[in-house]
Amino acid sequence: MRILITNDDGIDAPGLKVLDEIATALAGETGEVWTVAPAFEQSGVAHAISYTQPMMVSRLEERRFAVQGSPADCVLAGLHDIMLDARPDLVLSGVNRGNNAAENAVYSGTLGAAMEAALQGVPAIALSQYYGPGNRDMDDPFDAARAHGRDTVQRLLDKGAWTRGGYDIFYNVNFPPVAAARVKGLRAAPQGLRSDMGFGVQPHTSPSGRRFLWITGAPQTQPTHEGTDADWNLKDYISVTPMRADLTAHDMLEALKAIE
């Protein structure tokens, strides 16, 4: 199996090293793992692409490349340039430092990479490690992802639904914020929404008098509806959410016929 791995935390992120371990185990002795990741952190860029400017690609070593662009750019670079002669069988994105459950999924560059791969017709899975009191102070906060990542991806490859044509399925996997030994299992779950959650801004004035705004977040332990991704994560389960790039609110189409 040929696997392309990427992320949004950057080429030197510890989570990418974890993903390389997962991908190497999946690819096997006869397979290949190619890394095409952002040269610098690209968290929060979602599915952005560098449409109005070029991006520099640097070969760091065999099958390892850094791109001055977004995670989706990295997938495009991998599919249409770096691996042009032999496209990957699978794209893995992550392992993100922090969860991409609930509304975080909308902003996630980790998911943006998986979405782009799906739009290009390549099976893709995004993997993220939830951070919380149960793991953030551990020597290896990625313990749950490291221990359960390969099995989770393999189960999706063996038993997951992989559509072909139209808006293909990709998967959003979030590992709970606990040590690997405390993970209770895996649950298929819809995307949740944390109550009273949202990004904002905090203004600051620099010593030179210029005004800047810092983006602010909110606690990641806010409750979501029972049975959704973040709910299962906070109950020590791995969540798996099937996704598509189709943004249509299909449940509203019938009601909207009144405007015709």
From TrEMBL:
GO cellular component terms, A-Z: cytoplasm
Residues the record lists as binding a divalent metal cation: D8, D9, S43, N96
E.C. numbers: 3.1.3.5
Major location category of this protein: cytoplasm
GO molecular function, one term: nucleotide binding
Substrates-to-products reaction catalysed: a ribonucleoside 5'-phosphate + H2O = a ribonucleoside + phosphate
InterPro entries, alphabetized: SurE (IPR030048), SurE-like_Pase/nucleotidase (IPR002828), SurE-like_sf (IPR036523)
Enzyme class: hydrolase
Keyword Transferase annotated: no
Function: Nucleotidase that shows phosphatase activity on nucleoside 5'-monophosphates.
Protein name per Swiss-Prot or TrEMBL: 5'-nucleotidase SurE
Natural source organism: Roseovarius spongiae
